[in-house]
Write a structure and sequence with these properties.
It is built from 22 helices and 25 strands. The chain has 702 residues and is an alpha/beta fold. The longest helix is centred in the middle third of the chain and has 20 residues.
C-alpha cells in the first residue's frame, strides 16, 4: 500500500532497523590466559556466540578467551596484551554472573523489560542448578575505554545489580566454549536498543559495589544546567507521574518524591514557582506531610554538599517512562495534521461528497489475508514502488540533477537503470531549478539513448509551499490528467521557497505536498535535495523528512578517479548495499554561433564492480596510510609493521601530541580502524595496503 500522509508514526521517523545482534562489530580473542597474541574478528554477536558450543576442551583453562574491544600491541613485562592500558576502543560490554541463583531466562526477562539488546550464554561451568552466564551487550558504535564502567553500570542496573564486580575491569576477558561431554550451552537473545543508546538507564545504573553509579554525575549535571526552566512544561511532565507512586517503595517511594523535588529545585534555581509545582504534586499522595515539612526539605536541596547532579532532565526522563510527550512533540503532530488539512482544502478538483463516501481505512488482516495481498509492484525494481516518496540527495556538484533524469529517462523507456529493472511509464520532471539546463540534459539523453516521449520536463513551478499554492493546484491537475508513474521535484529548496528546513511544520508540509501528488495516479515522487555539510546519511533538514521517506539515495562527490558513488541510506523496497556508481560524461548537442561545441553532462553508468570501492578515512587514518608509501616494501608489496608504527608515532602527522604515549594510542586507534575498514591487512608482522579501493580523506576527525 502507498504511504498515506496522515500516517504520523511514519512521518515522524519510525522505521524498522536491523537487530544490534546482527551488526558487525570488533571482537578480540586470545588463545589462553597469557594473551601473548591476539586475533581480531569482525562478526555479529549472534554469529559469534552461535559458535561457542563448537569450542570444546578438557578443562576451562584450555579454552580461548574473548573481549568485545580493540587492543593495541603494547605488552606487559610478561608479554601479555590483555591489560587496561592496551585497550584502544570498546565495541560491546561482556559481563559475568556466577552467583548461581538467577537463571538465564530470568536475566533475559530483566533485559527485555529494560528494552536493551543483550545476549545471554552459559559459561563453561553453567548448569540449571547453579546458573552461571555471560551477558553480551553490543554497542552501536566504538566508544572510548573510559566509557566501559558507565556502560557496565547501565547493564548492571538493568539486571538488578547481579553482575560480578570483575565485570567492571576494562580489560577483563572471558573463556568461551564448553567442556568435553557437556551439553550444548544455553543461549537467550533479547532484542532492543544498543546499550550506548539507552540513556534512560543512567537513572538506575549500579556500580561494581551494587550502589548507584555516579561516574557520569558531572556530565549529567552539566547537561541539566543547560535545561531552561519552563513552568508549563514542568507541570505537564509532573501531571504524567502518579503522585501515589511516591507512597510505595515498590513504585518509587520516597526516592521518587525527593528526586522530583531536587529536579525542580535545581531546575528553577530554588524559586517559589518550582516549589509550588512540587508541593501541588505531593499533595496528591497519601504521605504528604504538610507545607512546613515540604518547605524544610526544599531548602535542604540548596545546602552545601547537597546532591546537585539531578536537574530537570531527571523530571522529563521520569515523565517519559509514564508516557509523557513534550508539548513540542504534540505541536509537531498538530502542525503535520494542519499541513495535510490545508492541502486537502486547496484542491479545487476534489468532490465535496467524496469524504462522505470514502471508506474507513482501518482494517485488520489475518495471516491468510496477508498472504493473499498483491505485491507492491515496482517502478524501479528493488528501489521504488508505486506511491513511494523518496529522495536523491548530495552535495552541490555531486550529480543529483544528472542521476535523477537518468533514472527517470530509463523508466520512460522501460530499460534497466544501474542493473535494476524498470516498469515503463510516464515520467514528469519538475525542473524548479535551472529548467534550461535540464532541457539540455534531456537533449543529451535523447542523443545518447534515443527518444522517450514518456519523459516530460516541466517548468514554471516556483512555489509548492504556500497555503493555497496555485502551483501545487496546477501540478496536481496535470497529475490527474496525465496519470504519471513517476514524478521528480528538482530541487526541494527551489520548489519550496522560504521553507524552514529544520522545522517539523515545514517538512511536514513538504511531505504532505509530496503525498498529495502520489494520490491521483499512485505515482512515486522523488525529491532532489542537498545533504548536510558533514555528509551524514540523512538529507538536510528536520529528521521528519528522513523518517517519512520510503527510500533515500545519497551521492558523494567524485573521487580522484572521477567516480561518483551513490549509497542507499534507506530502502523499504530492497537492500541498501546495492553498488551505484557512475562517471560524468558529456554529449555534444551542436555548435554555437562561433562554431564552438555545445555540450551537456549526463551519466555514464559503471557496471557492478567496475568502480573501486569508496572508503572514507579520517585525517589520522589517511596520514597513517600515507606513511606506508615512504617505507621499503617487499616483493609482495608489504612493509614491516613495526617500522610503519614507529614512522607513524615519530612522524607527528598522525598525532601532533608532545606525549609519546598519547601519539602511540592515536596510532593504535588509526591502525585498528584501517584494518577494520579493509584499508590495510596485517599478517605475520607485515602490512599489506589495499590498493583496489578508492579512499577519501575526511576533513574532520570523527
Amino acid at each position: 500500500m502507498p504511504t498515506l500522509p496522515d500516517e504520523f508514526d511514519t512521518l515522524l521517523g519510525a522505521c524498522m532497523t536491523a537487530s544490534p545482534h546482527d551488526q558487525p562489530i570488533t571482537i578480540t580473542t586470545f588463545s589462553d590466559v597469557h594473551a601473548t597474541a591476539q586475533t581480531v574478528v569482525t562478526s555479529s554477536v549472534r554469529n559469534f556466540i552461535g559458535g561457542f558450543s563448537s569450542r570444546t576442551a578438557k578443562n576451562k583453562a584450555a579454552l580461548p578467551l574473548f573481549k568485545m574491544a580493540q587492543f593495541g600491541d603494547a605488552a606487559t613485562d610478561r608479554g601479555s596484551l590483555r591489560h587496561d592500558d592496551n585497550i584502544v576502543a570498546i565495541s560491546g560490554i561482556v559481563a559475568d554472573y556466577d552467583a548461581g541463583e538467577i537463571s538465564i531466562s530470568e536475566a533475559a526477562a530483566m533485559a527485555r523489560a529494560a528494552g536493551i539488546a543483550v545476549a545471554f550464554v552459559g559459561s563453561p561451568s553453567h548448569s540449571a542448578a547453579k546458573p552461571r552466564w555471560r551477558a553480551v551487550a553490543p554497542l552501536a558504535e566504538l566508544v572510548s575505554p573510559d566509557e566501559h564502567a558507565r556502560m557496565c553500570a547501565r547493564l548492571n542496573g538493568a539486571l538488578g545489580g547481579a553482575l560480578a564486580s570483575e565485570s567492571f575491569t576494562t580489560s577483563q576477558s572471558y573463556f568461551y566454549g564448553r567442556l568435553d561431554g557437556a551439553p550444548e550451552l544455553e543461549v537467550a537473545i533479547v532484542d532492543g536498543q544498543p546499550l550506548d543508546r539507552a540513556i534512560d538507564l543512567d537513572a538506575k545504573a549500579l556500580g561494581r559495589d551494587g550502589r548507584p553509579f555516579n561516574g557520569f554525575a558531572a556530565t549529567r549535571a552539566a547537561d541539566e544546567q543547560q535545561e531552561p526552566f519552563e513552568a508549563a512544561r514542568a507541570e505537564s511532565a509532573l501531571a504524567a507521574i502518579p503522585a501515589t507512586n511516591a507512597d510505595d517503595p515498590a513504585t518509587g517511594g520516597r526516592d521518587l518524591w525527593l528526586n522530583l523535588g531536587m529536579a525542580l529545585f535545581h531546575g528553577s534555581c530554588g524559586s517559589d514557582e518550582g516549589f509550588a509545582l512540587w508541593d501541588a504534586w505531593s499533595k496528591r499522595g497519601a504521605k504528604y506531610g504538610g507545607e512546613r515539612d515540604q518547605r524544610r526539605k526544599w531548602r535542604s536541596f540548596g545546602r552545601a554538599g547537597a546532591k546537585r547532579s539531578i536537574g530537570l532532565g531527571t523530571l522529563y526522563r521520569t515523565a517519559a517512562q509514564y508516557g509523557w510527550e513534550p508539548p513540542e512533540t504534540a505541536a509537531r503532530k498538530e502542525a503535520i495534521e494542519s499541513a495535510i488539512a490545508d492541502l486537502d482544502d486547496l484542491d479545487p478538483l476534489a468532490d465535496p461528497a467524496e469524504a462522505l463516501l470514502r471508506p474507513n481505512r482501518l482494517r485488520f488482516f489475518n495471516p491468510a489475508e496477508c498472504a493473499a495481498e498483491p505485491s507492491r509492484g515496482y517502478i524501479v525494481k528493488g528501489l521504488m514502488a508505486p506511491g513511494d516518496v523518496g529522495c536523491i540527495y548530495g552535495a552541490p556538484g555531486a550529480g543529483k540533477s544528472l542521476i535523477s533524469p537518468h533514472i527517470g529517462y530509463a523508466v520512460a523507456r522501460g530499460v534497466p537503470a544501474f542493473g535494476m529493472r524498470t516498469k515503463p511509464g510516464l515520467v514528469l520532471y519538475v525542473a524548479a531549478e535551472d529548467a534550461r539546463g535540464m532541457k539540455d540534459r534531456v537533449r543529451a539523453l535523447r542523443i545518447r539513448h534515443g527518444d522517450a516521449d514518456a519523459f516530460r520536463v516541466g517548468e514554471g513551478i516556483t512555489d509548492l509551499l504556500t497555503t493555497g499554492s496555485e502551483d501545487l493546484v496546477e501540478l496536481r491537475r496535470h497529475v490527474r490528467e496525465l496519470q504519471p508513474s513517476l514524478i521528480f521535484i528538482d530541487t526541494l529548496a527551489m520548489a519550496f521557497p522560504g521553507l524552514e528546513e529544520n522545522s517539523a511544520e515545514g517538512m511536514g508540509r513538504v511531505m504532505a505536498a509530496a503525498h498529495s501528488l502520489t494520490k491521483p495516479s499512485n505515482a512515486a515522487v522523488v525529491l532532489v535535495h542537498h545533504d548536510t555539510k558533514a555528509q551524514t546519511p540523512t538529507p538536510r533538514g528536520h529528521s521528519l523528512l528522513n523518517g517519512a521517506l520510503d527510500f533515500a539515495l545519497q551521492l558523494f562527490p567524485k573521487d580522484e578517479s572521477g567516480v561518483v558513488r551513490g549509497r542507499l541510506s534507506k530502502n523499504r523496497n530492497g537492500a541498501c548495499d546495492r553498488d551505484i556508481a557512475f562517471r560524468i560524461d558529456t554529449e555534444q548537442l551542436g555548435v554555437d554561433e562561433d562554431g564552438d561545441p555545445i555540450t551537456a553532462a549526463l551519466v555514464a553508468e559503471l557496471t557492478l564492480g567496475a568502480a573501486a570501492q569508496r572508503v572514507k578515512l579520517s585525517p589520522s587514518e589517511a596520514a597513517a596510510r600515507r606513511h606506508l608509501s615512504g617505507l621499503q616494501v617487499d616483493t609482495n608489496g608489504s612493509a614491516c609493521e613495526r617500522e610503519w608504527r614507529e614512522a607513524c608515532i615519530n612522524g607527528r602527522a598522525v598525532s601532533g601530541s608532545d606525549n609519546a604515549d598519547s601519539r602511540r594510542r592515536v596510532v593504535d586507534r588509526a591502525v585498528a580502524s584501517l584494518v577494520r575498514k579493509g584499508a590495510v591487512t596485517i599478517r605475520d608482522g607485515r602490512v599489506f595496503p589495499d590498493n583496489g579501493a578508492s579512499y577519501q580523506h575526511d576533513d574532520l576527525e570523527p
